Input
Amino acid sequence: MYKKLIIFFTIFQFNILLADNSALFYVESALKNNPKLNAERENLKAIKENENISMSEFLPSLTISGSQTSKETSNIIDQSGSQSGNTKRNTETKKISLDQKIFQGFQGYNNLKKSRLEFEKAQNEYKIVEQDTILNSISAYYDLIFKSKSKDFNLANVDLFERQVESDRSRLQKGEISLTDLAQSESSLARAQANFIKADTEYTSALAEFERINGIKSPQNLNDNFDISFLLPQSLKSALELSNLNNPNLAIARINLAISEKELSVEKARLSPSATLNYSKTENKDLSATVDEDEQETLKATVTWPIIQGGKNFSSIKKFKHKKDQNALLLVDKENEIKTQTSTSWSYYQSAESVLISTEAQLKAAEIANEGITLEYDSGNTRTTLDVIQSRSLLLEARISNAEAKKDFIVSKLRLLSQIGGLELKAFQTP
Output
């Protein structure tokens, strides 16, 4: 007995893992094949190089240059009118120069900090696209399940009404029902067929959307496992705290303010003195008719201090100060926006859960009612054809509403998880 229970629970857990891995498989495919996300990956690599570019400002630069000149002089006539022979000279110059920036008024330091902030911003921009990709992938997965169920429900409804029409035609011949009853059944069959055509069209569209988002062919059989567990906040207060800490859009607004502060510091540093050190060595061959070779070594220290630039430097400082104030105001606006969006996502999640519970109760009641009314109708009781039609319509509506509520409940979890910055691939691997 115990062995059977162990085998049962093992198979049960394995099936759950298969369902989770099925969803995970398509998420991984979407993350791999999405062109926008791949473009963000390349952008992230490019922006990472800005940090190396900023670091280069602290390191010496080495330059090697060389030139070779060939000069031929002909038709030389002196002041007495005498003509001398042609001359030809070849000269060669080689130079090596080493430059080191000593001080720049902290321009280099602030540019380096700015580069690191820009990379952090790019990471959050990548995270936004990644979260959108995951959200779209899972939404398309469960929307495909919903549209598939809707199609199956409508097909089953068509089959039921086809059998009812056949039964009613037989009962009409026996005089058990009127022609009006048969007409009602035929009308309901036509409506059921129209609803099936609509559901089939929506399913075909869902298939195409699934393949577009995930970049692979849609599956033949879907694992109907709506209850994927995520680590979600337990209260609105907790959700607001997490979104304030982890929401990537809010993080970008904060980084933009920090970047503008660094840009302002860079502009202020342009008013400071700067110092550079240069060492160069030059070798000249055939320098002149009397000197065959020449070597020069130069060590040069330069200090510059911009005083007046026609007001350009001061206007530039004002410009970046206004930009900093702008980003500070945008941050306040973004904080309010994220609070509103998080509250909305939380409400949507709570509402979706309540709707799911309600549709489950609705479905259970509709199944019981339909079974009873159908039995009473078939037994020739007081139930009319209209009662059966209404009962089946309510049952179909309840089934579709319940399937849609399951999908909406999963999507509400994903939206809330995205809002608090936790919609990542590892979220689907949580036991």
Summary: Residues 19-69+89-429 form a domain with the Outer membrane efflux proteins (OEP) fold (CATH 1.20.1600.10). The two ends are 27 Å apart (CA to CA). The beta strands are 61-73, 76-77, 83-84, 87-103, 274-285, 293-304. The longest helix spans residues 107-174.
